[in-house]
Design a protein that fits this description.
There is one protein chain. The chain is mainly α and 89 residues long. It has one domain: Chorismate Mutase Domain, subunit A (Up-down Bundle), CATH 1.20.59.10. It is 83% helix and 0% strand. It is built from three helices and no strands. Helix 2 runs antiparallel to helix 3. The longest helix has 39 residues.
Length: 89
């Protein structure tokens, strides 16, 4: 692969990164709402059962090329940040 081929591929990745960032910020707005509801209901912020359910479902629908473990790692990081956001509200 030449550098000539590399730049358009990197541009595609840059565009996807922007879409991912937009979706993560949309998700974060909903996470904040959920955090408010949990606080109103007196519930704990961290819900490991829900996290496992989400990871299991994502693993079932994942068609690759990422492995289930890779998907799990990514979403565990997202969950960790989500908990941090809810705890600061």
């Amino acid at each position: 692969m030449s550098y000539q081929n590399l730049d358009p591929l990197r541009q595609q990745i840059d565009e996807i990164n922007l879409k991912i960032l937009k979706l993560l910020n949309e998700r974060t707005k909903i996470v904040e709402l959920i955090g408010n509801e949990k606080q109103n209901l007196g519930l704990k912020v961290h819900d490991p059962i829900r996290e496992q359910q989400v990871i299991q479902k994502l693993g079932e629908v994942n068609q690759g090329p990422m492995t289930e473990e890779m998907v799990s790692q990514i979403f565990q990081t997202i969950f960790k940040v989500s908990v941090q956001i809810q705890e600061t509200k």
